[in-house]
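Bug #77: duplicate submission created two jobs. Keeping one. Sequence:
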Amino acid sequence: MTVMKERAIDLICRMPEERLYHVVQLLESVEGLSESMEKGVKTTQQKALEDLQRFRKRSVTEIDYKTELAKAREEKYAGIN
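Kept job's structure:
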């Protein structure tokens, strides 16, 4: 057994029973994530992100953010003397 597994088992043994539920949930989600990564299966979140990126459009105009910030500051603080 590796040192990391021994540390994990030791931590779990010292943990109160009511907190073990959360540890089990976490381990199951990590296990499921690694299985889907190996198989190449995409999660619903990954599919949703891909859908959003498909509809994303690039702007044809370049924005000078420093100039825009300067204009916004002038408008906001113009009345302050």
